[in-house]
Write a structure and sequence with these properties.
Number of helices: 13
Structural class: alpha/beta
Distance between the termini: 10 Å
Order of helices and strands: HEEHHEHHEEHEHEHEHEEHEHHEHEE
Shape: globular
Radius of gyration: 21 Å
Number of strands: 14
């Protein structure tokens, strides 16, 4: 789930621009080769049951995998990838075993302290360890059969399945008036209800991925619901895609209705993605309408999160949301995307910060090149998460942290 439009806080951390030096280029090539080798090795070991992969991402047209960490198991994944990347050609690539020994207890304490003793799935004591599956993959019996076998032969126990994707498509023939009117049904999965039943019989915990405000299809079919420029024309991001207006309550109702349909057929959890505003530079020229008067972007995203949590919790589902890792400690990033880490955590069962080292500016957390030192970056981010969530008063609800790892 690549977040290509991630905003970097340039005012806080100076981002290098221009061409990289030949030395830097060689280092990048070395890192790419090492990452490829390590990734293939990790996947083989995971398949054979030697290591634990917490969240695997199955790409839309290719079964390549990308890791996402489930809560409480971040430490295991980070330790496997903790190789010191050279700052120059003369340094070695030996594991930083001493640093791991010094920080592993701290990291486990960080993650555990955020769990709040709340079980991540409906079976007490069970951790979420799953794979992300797109609509086309979910509708392919052969590929799904292999994924079910993978779940049954490893520590995996969950699947995140696209229900409403980032193009606005519904991945099966959902019986909903607006979905039918827009032609949003793709029928990637011919019988989603039967698929859910089959997966539940395999004792698999099911998470429905629902993309919230990035919905080019709804924006096109129902222009009254889309974000508009100040001249009244529909807003389009750098990819030419429209977004729906988070201030419009009709948009909220559509998202919640789609989510409830997923719960009705057996999904245990709704996971919102793109629960935010576009970061496109042209967003400074938009008009959100009279509904936005007196309300900031963070105000309305918090309000939606609270509403969605109340609606879906009472409907019997767990609720989670993907958020940018940068919002944990950056007020500028929070204001641009509309995500407030602490306040959203008060209205979710799980919050999933996307801690992607390559998306952090050089110098973040006093790390010269974060993408070359993922362990330090992830540890620093989780420690910052722990610190900011400690601001929530004792006894008040706080989400479990379930970070995405790159």
């Amino acid at each position: 789930m690549a977040k290509r439009d991630l905003y970097i806080d340039y005012n806080k951390h100076k981002k290098r621009r221009g061409n990289r030096s030949p030395k830097t280029f060689r280092n990048i090539v070395i890192i790419i080769i090492l990452a490829t080798v390590l990734g293939l090795g990790a996947y083989y070991l995971a398949k054979e049951g030697f290591i634990s992969l917490d969240f695997l991402s199955i790409a839309k047209e290719d079964p390549e995998v990308i890791e996402q960490a489930a809560q409480e198991s971040t430490q295991e994944n980070i330790k496997d990838e903790n190789l010191s990347s050279p700052k120059n050609e003369g340094e070695s690539l030996e594991p930083e075993t001493e640093e791991i020994k010094e920080t592993e207890d701290s990291l486990q304490e960080t993650v555990n302290s955020q769990n709040n003793d709340k079980v991540p799935v409906k079976k007490e004591g069970t951790k979420v360890k799953g794979i992300y599956v797109t609509g086309p993959v979910a509708g392919n019996a052969n590929r799904m059969g292999k994924l079910v076998d993978l779940v049954n032969t490893t520590e995996l126990n969950a699947m995140v399945i696209d229900i409403k994707n980032d193009t606005g498509e519904i991945t099966y023939n959902m019986e909903h008036d607006l979905v039918s009117e827009m032609g949003a049904n793709t029928n990637y999965v011919a019988n989603m209800e039967q698929l859910v039943k089959d997966l539940k019989e395999q004792d698999i915990y099911l998470i429905a991925r629902v993309v919230a405000f990035k919905d080019p299809l709804l924006a096109k079919k129902k222009p009254e619901l889309c974000i508009k420029n100040t001249d009244g024309s529909p807003f389009r991001d750098k990819d030419g895609l429209g977004w729906v207006n988070p201030y419009n309550k009709d948009v909220w109702e559509y998202i919640i209705q789609v989510s409830k349909e997923a719960v009705d057929i057996g999904f245990d959890e709704i996971q919102f993605d793109y629960i935010r505003f576009s970061t496109d530079p042209k967003m400074k020229n938009v008009d959100f309408g009279i509904e936005a008067e007196g309300k900031s972007k963070t105000d309305i995203i918090i309000e939606f999160t609270e509403y969605a949590y109340e609606e879906l919790s009472s409907y019997g589902a767990f609720v989670s949301a993907d958020v940018y890792g940068a919002i944990i400690d950056s007020e500028i990033d929070r204001a641009i995307v509309g995500q407030d880490y602490v306040e959203m955590s008060k209205h979710l069962d799980y919050i999933c910060p996307m801690i992607y080292p390559s998306h952090y500016a050089d110098g973040s957390f006093e790390i010269e090149y974060p993408d070359l030192e993922p362990y330090k970056l992830i540890l620093a981010s989780l420690n910052e998460s722990k610190e900011v969530l400690s601001e929530i008063e004792e006894g008040e609800h706080v989400a479990i942290v379930r970070p995405w790892l790159q």
